[in-house]
Amino acid sequence: MAVEKNTFIEIEYTGKTEDGEIFDSTRKDDEKIMGVKEGTFKPLKLAVGNEMIVKGLDEDFIGKEIGKDYSVKVSPEKAFGKRDPKLVQMVSMSNFNEQKVVPQKGMQFSFDGKLAKIVSVSGGRVLVDFNHSLAGKNLIYSYKILRKVEDKKEQLDSLQEFFFRQKFDSEINGNTAKIKIEKKFLPIFELMKQRFEEIISLKIEFETVSDKK
User: Fold this and answer.
1) Same domain, 122 and 29
2) Of the four, 40, 93, 119, 190, which is 20 to 30 A from 65 by CA?
3) How confident is the model over 57-82, as pLDDT tens digits?
4) What are all long-range contacts of 128-132, with beta carbons under 8 Å and residues at least 24 apart?
5) What totals of helices (H) and strands (E) does the chain contain, helices first?
6) What is the CATH number of the domain that holds 180?
7) Do 15 and 140 form a contact (C-beta atoms < 8 A)?
8) The whole model's pTM is what?
9) Nearest residue to 204 (alpha-carbon basis) of 168, 177, 166, 171
10) What is the pLDDT of residue 46?
11) Are 25 and 105 found together in one domain?
């Protein structure tokens, strides 16, 4: 059966720029190429059509079959956007001095929560590019859908790991899923509750437990 919107799938993929540089992967074969520790990469679980991966790749999953190899070229508009000249800005050297950072060309850093790259350093001014490093580029994704994730508990766990980078205790009874969370996380989960219910087609309830010290 072909993949449809909201189908939970487990995939492996490699993302490359048009010149062949790998910028993202879930395949163990790419670990050495990217210089990461062995065992770092693992297949990704996601719900199709819910923006859990770049739009162009997400759209390409629709209608595909399990176990087959596919490749798709994704335009900037459906990946990391076009380059915006307005996001290349001069920043005063004093901003770096306050953080005790010596700016150098090519350096990447977080500036007000945004990842930026230093283009040049001249006198008391630093030219900074706030565009995503892949903005304006066509991207090539090769991928394989390994399987459909049918188990509701596994689906719920995969959503938690994707959105919160951790998995909380949970149980499913009928059409209701109960997640046990620390009180401090409740406001965040409440914001995500409707999104979870739409994706997984279950009613979500929360059981609060004492915050860990």
Assistant:
1) no
2) 40
3) 999 999 999 999 999 999 999 999 99
4) 128/88, 128/89, 128/90, 128/91, 129/87, 129/88, 130/87, 130/88, 130/89, 131/81, 131/83, 131/84, 131/87, 131/88, 132/80, 132/81
5) 5, 12
6) 3.30.70.1770
7) yes
8) 0.84
9) 177
10) 97
11) no
- The values of phi and psi at residue 87, to 5°, are -90, 5
Residue keyed to tokens 């956007």: 81
Element (H or E) spanning 32, and its range? helix 31-34
Instruction: Map tokens 């706030």 to a residue.
Output: 130
Q: Of 62, 59, 61, 55, which is closest to residue 76 (Cα–Cα)?
A: 55
- Intra-chain end-to-end CA distance of the chain, in Å: 48
Contact by Cβ (8 Å): 80, 135? yes
CA-CA distance, 106 to 133, in Å (whole number)? 11
Same-domain status, 105 and 49: no
Return all residues near 202 (Cβ < 8 A) that are at least 6 apart: 152, 156, 172, 175, 176, 177, 196
Task: Write the DSSP symbol of residue 131.
Answer: S
Which residues form the domain of 194? 151-213
